[in-house]
Amino acid sequence: MFDLTFTIDDDGAPTPLTLPIDQAVIAGWTGRDPVARDKHIAELEAIGIARPASTPIYYRVAACRLTTADSIEVSGEDSSGEVEFVLIGWQGRIFVGLGSDHTDRKVEAYSVTVSKQMCDKPIASELWELEDVADHWDQMILRSFAWIDGKRVLYQEGTLDAMLPVKELIDRQFGTAGLPDGCAMFGGTFAAKGGIRPASRFEYELEDPVLKRSIRHAYDVITLPVLG
């Protein structure tokens, strides 16, 4: 178990909240639309990654892989980010955050489970209460930008009505017990515009068009040499 400090809105005042995180789960292939889901599966198959054993599927990673840092170090040039909403359980409450499931694509071709463990998972330091956004959840927007060859390009974009509803996403993994305290669960992603590819910097956001606010985060990708 380790602690991460976030900022939440407490009656209009930004308030720090330190949460003990002892479990991290990466949910994959969580799309409601089987056509869009299969498009993402085909996208990964095109770079040699096997189809998942089930849809959705829930991968476990070490909780210490979560970080709010603004840079990460990776081995080689075969990794890339994916924007996802993040659900965190704490004292019976659920908070909504923002993360990037940064993944080593070369290792992913060998084992998706192992690849999830290879890279840190950058998350934003701001959280919202789920109950504050539940009634307009499907309208919220996930979006990412990647810096590729010195240019900032739109990499992913979509509304959450394309993803499994929160309750179903949680129930399929944890049943009626609900999201455990101290668990951070990534909720799935969208296909990359132009295909999956590495970037030197990854910027991403969760936009709430109803309450007129966004959570944003960005990180630089520092590539370490692979010497054999």
UniProtKB/TrEMBL annotation:
Gene Ontology MF terms in the entry: catalytic activity
InterPro entries documented for this protein: DUF2848 (IPR021269), Fumarylacetoacetase_C_sf (IPR036663)
Pfam families referenced in this protein's UniProt entry, alphabetically: DUF2848
Official protein name in the record: DUF2848 domain-containing protein
Highest classification ranks of the organism: Bacteria, Pseudomonadati, Pseudomonadota, Alphaproteobacteria, Hyphomicrobiales
